[in-house]
Design a protein that fits this description.
By secondary structure, the protein is an all-alpha fold. Helix content is about 75%, strand content about 0%.
Length: about 180
């Protein structure tokens, strides 16, 4: 009788050592999701490197501990990087949000528009998309996108004029510029 098939060997290793490896990982992590991820990665590595798993059960268990230890270390390093990135991004967003003047008339006028109007205007102003690109994003024809943009700009001009009568000319000028007129 020859050596067991790879699936059979893996199953034997898994059944014999899963409880010990699971306990090892649980003692080092508190998150059920992290525990599941580390165990899955540990046994995935064992499957991929099945020929590297020592044949003797005690040696196989120690090999799996080593794999689990490295997977945990990688997992915690990745978590630290994600946390550092989240902190940095939170700081940047806070800085950006503080720089935005929430009391300015243009912002208030923009916020008074419907979600659809804000979206089409943002696609032009913030994302720098062209008419045909906007049509693709919105899933409509170029003519429909052009019409939506024109109407959104007119509504923005109207909102600007209502908020601050001094901006009435600005709103008309913005619509003229948006339509390609000077």
């Amino acid at each position: 009788m020859g050596p067991p098939e790879p699936e059979q060997r893996f199953e034997e290793i898994y059944m014999a050592h899963y409880p010990a490896i699971a306990t090892y990982v649980r003692r080092r992590s508190t998150s059920p999701d992290d525990i599941a991820d580390v165990l899955a990665e540990t046994f995935t590595t064992a499957w991929r490197r099945l020929n590297d798993v020592p044949p003797k059960p005690e040696q196989a268990r120690l090999w799996l501990y080593g794999v689990a230890r490295r997977v945990l270390a990688n997992h915690f390093r990745a978590e630290e990087r994600r946390t550092a990135l989240a902190v940095r991004l939170r700081g940047e967003v806070t800085t950006w949000a503080a720089a935005v003047v929430r009391d300015d008339s243009a912002h208030r006028a923009f916020q008074r528009l419907s979600d659809d109007d804000r979206e089409v205007l943002a696609l032009v102003a913030w994302e720098g998309l062209t008419g045909p690109e906007i049509a693709k994003v919105l899933g409509c024809s170029r003519g429909a996108a052009r019409l939506r943009l024109h109407r959104a700009r007119k509504r923005l001009a109207k909102e600007l004029a209502e908020i601050d009568p001094d901006l009435a000319g600005y709103g008309s000028r913005a619509v003229s510029l948006a339509e390609g007129r000077s």
